[in-house]
Amino acid sequence: MKKIMLACVITTVLLTGCQAQPAAPETSQLMLGPGVSQYISVDAQPGGITDGGLLRQGVRVHNRSHSTRKVRFRVVWFDHAGFELAGLSSSRWAIHTLRPGEPVTLSRIATTPKAINYRIDLFPAQVSQASSTEGSMK
Predict the structure, then answer these.
(1) CATH T-level fold of 25-137
(2) Which pTM value belongs to this model?
């Protein structure tokens, strides 16, 4: 009886493994720049596919501080192999003003169906470009 049960489990595992599609490398993430986590709360990362088949991704945040803050935001898009799709207009930095306590959803739509994954960068507006690659992964 144990041999039959073991044979069924092995067969199920093998059949499931044969049907699995290779997954794209996981690069979906949120990168917060220096100090942003001290005054920003990340509430959600909504995303989906548009009617035209393009990837849409964003981040819902709110400013926990008592003063208005400016942040830089962008979505970096990646292809099926995990390589960055450089030069997309939706990957450009944009400055957003966050008022105290106000919830805001920052989002972008990829401009090509080749984009299947993403990374969201959220940095203080005053951070220099030289340090824009430093941040914390969330």
Answers:
(1) Immunoglobulin-like (2.60.40)
(2) 0.69
